[in-house]
Amino acid sequence: MASELYNTIDALSREKGIDPQIVVSAVEDAIVMATRKYYKTQENLRAELDKETGKINAYAVKTVVETPEQVEDPLLQITLEDARKSDPALEVGGELRIPKVTEGILGRIAAQLAKQVIFQKVREAERDTVYNEYIGRVGEVVNATVKRVEGPDVIFDIGKAEARMPRKEQSRLESFAIGERVRVVIARVEKASKGPAVVASRAVPDLVQHLFQTEVPEIYDGTVVIRAIAREAGERTKIAVLSKDKDVDAVGACVGMKGMRVQSIIRELHGEKIDIIEYHEDAVTFAEKALQPAKVSKVTVVDSGGKHLEVVVDDSQLSLAIGKKGQNVRLAAKLLGWKIDIKSEEEKRQEVEQQMSAMVPQTSTPLESVPGLGEGLVEKLGAAGVTTVEALADMTPEQLEAIEGIGPKTVEKISLAVNNYFASLEGIALEGEVVEGEAAVAEGSTETIEGVAAAEEVAPVEESAVSEEAVAPEAEEVSEPEAADGGENEGQAKSTEEEPAVEAENASETRE
């Protein structure tokens, strides 16, 4: 018959859900520690509980060796000769147990120490039991009762243990009252110094999946399969479903008649929005549906290996496709498992234009290819770092005049030559007659042009380009050689560079 002590140990073991032998070992270890503290010895002590009498005996255990020379520590070893004085049946390698008196001598302090050791061992055993119980149930949905609230954390009673739900595992829409029963997911089990911590969650997608399995019979029996879930707790959830029966509408089955099924789940989640999407193997089609409620114009696979999609939407749909703080596209990307870049049609058009312009080769035409630029002028421009027609065309009159040896008249000549060059490239004929010869004006001197016919209508040059003072001396220099030739073209001679109408009249008066 078991003793009263052992019956107490057995009852404690059942209450804590641990093996009774673990408690017995804890009691024996406690007696050993108390005995060592009382006798102040470093002997190898051992204790045993007698189940029938309830008495706990303590012993000092020594290993038997053959000769005195082999005794390294007298507290731990004893010679065969000395050991057989106590027990003639002992052999080398055996153990001699020397009883230690414990009754009536351990006292209150030793008893308190034994109690602490027992409680510590029981707690450790309880932790191991809880850990082993719940480590295999991670991801399972269990019914829990709100036990208390500790700051931002909610503590649940889940049966054999308590579960803690930190703030990040909660939905922002939810609050709990003491004693309230809720469904939670066992997110993980952690080993900590204070014991195994079972972490519960209501923010993981597993909770939504469990609710759909509970509310939708087609999902429970496997007719409709949940292929993917993306969730941001308290905000929105996207769930992709696929029907294995062509006669069953997967989305309709989840929504239910008049939305009753999905509304029941929304109430359980305290108003969290749920988008139910039909799953497609084709990533392009799936992406179009995953980005709902936005309407997608085009989906392009950028990199199938890297799972990268580019989505183009109408300008008015861009904000809807992205969602509040990027939530819609973020959930769609999680649902697909692809990276998604969203662009408006205007952004895509500008991108295409840039790509097209980048494909067009950038030409560089040397100045020598432009008719009308003399060799001396090309050298001056080259000395200033201007070696191509394109660079010359981008320069302003002020920049040209800043070059040494180039004045307003030369700037006008350069402008006309560049315009004629680009016009010839585009196939545009200049107005008026073609000038067969051009004047090359060197700085500080004027050369006579032979066989140059002046056009009847010449586009006037801006007054800012050539001043009246710069024209008058030029006109005088040109008129004198023409008068010497007989004056046959009197009244028709003009300066080498075309001037505005008023300046042309002044030049004619000077020639007369």
What descriptive keywords fit this protein?
N Utilization Substance Protein A, Chain:P, domain 4; 20% strand; 512 residues; 18 helices; five-stranded mixed beta barrel; OB fold (Dihydrolipoamide Acetyltransferase, E2P); four-stranded mixed sheet; alpha/beta; single chain; GMP Synthetase, Chain A, domain 3
**Could you name the CATH class of the largest domain?**
Alpha Beta
Extract low-pLDDT stretches: 428-512
The CATH H-level superfamily of the largest domain is NusA, N-terminal domain
User: What fraction, in percent, of the residue positions are helical?
Assistant: 25-40%
Biggest sheet, spatial arrangement of strands = 5-6-7-9-8
CATH architecture of the largest domain: 2-Layer Sandwich
Polypeptide structure, described:
- 39% of the residues lie in helices and 20% in strands.
- With 512 residues, it is α/β, with parallel strands linked by helices.
- It folds into five domains: 4-130, N Utilization Substance Protein A, Chain:P, domain 4 (2-Layer Sandwich); 138-201, Nucleic acid-binding proteins (OB fold (Dihydrolipoamide Acetyltransferase, E2P), Beta Barrel); 280-358, 2-Layer Sandwich (GMP Synthetase, Chain A, domain 3), CATH 3.30.300; 361-430, Orthogonal Bundle (DNA polymerase, domain 1), CATH 1.10.150; 441-512, no CATH class.
- The strands form four sheets. Strands 5-6-7-9-8 form a five-stranded mixed beta barrel.
- The longest helix has 28 residues, at 107-134.
